Amino acid sequence: MRSDWRIPAAAAATTACLLLITVSSFTTVHSAFSSPLAMSRTLTILIVSDPHDDVQAIHRVAEELQDRGIKPDVVLCPGDLTTMKSKLGVRPDDAVLKQYDDSSAEVLSALAGINPALFWIPGNHDPDTMFEDPESLTIAASTLNIGTNIHGKLVQLAPSLYLAGYGGAVEASIDGQPSWGAYPVTDEELGAGILPLSEEISILPADSSVLLMTHCGPNGSSTAEVSGWDANSITAQGVREHWVLSGSRSLRDMIQSEQLQSKTLLNVHGHTHNGCGMARLGAVTVLNPGSVRYTRSYAVLTLAQHKEGGKWHRGSIEIVEMPELL
User: Distance between CA atoms of 261 and 217, rounded to whole angstroms?
Assistant: First the structure.
């Protein structure tokens, strides 16, 4: 966990997936940012998920935001920047990893073009290198200096406001039978991996507010379930007899804990395109903005802090569809 409240300098480099959060009015942050967050009492956040190499869709989001006069203070991307085929336990060779890292860099650069204060995590279709220690990489990763990869990390966005991230997706099932595969870890392994992050959140001051960004959603949330026949659509009619359940039980257990129930403003995730929407696990709102490539949607979140040093609160959550691109 960072000991200071500033947004990491790396976030000023470039950006990739879209989700929108708005902050305005207190003033002084990192020198790398033209719109400081430190003194701001409101925050606007853009959330763009699952772009899957679709840079043009991100440019369309940017145009739409400009037309609407929306200037996000922060951009979040919950993963699946690219389209790498993945299989649990199988690591692609370096040439493949480099190919998809370069594709991801183009996506992140487009997101950073909206605002360089970009925070992202890898999904199950992103290169293994994004889950690994940068010091031990076997390729020259183009994505290292574009925004901030917060997989397994807790960072401070503003006084009393934190962002935690964990990437990858667990195994999915249909009527109790395996469906989508996990990558790069199983649900049980995700539980072990996410434990240190949960512990860091638990020792934050009681008045802290946390945004939890994961690639897959929690088990039991409708945002992590595919009810429609087309897993990549939110407009195709018809309901499956047996739904795809893609949520993580380990993540659900984490969110159900007393500390996360009291401190978590929102769990933002992607992965399940057809699950686009909002749900709730106890006191925690769960938001899936859909896939900017497949469901042509993104989200804008507004947060507010009513008094200095106090908790942050959700002002509004908007899921925006771009049907003209379908």
Answer: 16
The answer to whether the CB of 75 falls within 8 A of the CB of 19 is yes
Cα 322 to Cα 326: distance, rounded to the nearest angstrom: 7
Q: Which residue has the tokens 């993580």?
A: 248
Cis peptide before 8, with omega less than 30 degrees from 0? Answer: no
User: What type of residue sits at position 273?
Assistant: H
| Residue 186 · residue 88 · CB < 8 Å | yes
Determine the Cα–Cα distance for residues 170 and 113; give it in Å rounded to an integer.
31
Summarised one tens digit per residue, pLDDT across range 145-181 is: 999 999 999 999 999 999 999 999 999 999 999 999 9
Q: What is the pLDDT of residue 325?
A: 66
Can you list the residues of the chain whose pLDDT is less than 50? 1-36
In angstroms, rounded to a whole number, what is the distance separating the alpha carbons of residues 108 and 14?
6
Crossing angle of helices 94-112 and 55-68, rounded to 10°: 10
The pTM (predicted TM-score) of the whole model is 0.88
Would you state the structure tokens that stand for residue 317, as one six-digit string? Answer: 């959550």
DSSP-based helix, strand, coil % in the chain, nearest 5 = 25, 30, 45
Amino acid identity, position 316: S
Q: Could you give the 3-state DSSP secondary structure of residue 207?
A: coil
CA quadruple 178, 237, 48, 183: dihedral, nearest 10: 10
272 φ/ψ angles, rounded to the nearest 5 degrees:
-95, 90
Length of the chain: 326
Query: pLDDT tens for residues 207-254?
Result: 999 999 999 999 999 999 999 999 999 999 999 999 999 999 999 999
Output the pLDDT for position 257: 97
Query: For residues 164 and 213, what is the distance between their CA atoms, to the nearest angstrom?
Result: 6
Q: Could you say which DSSP state residue 159 is in?
A: T
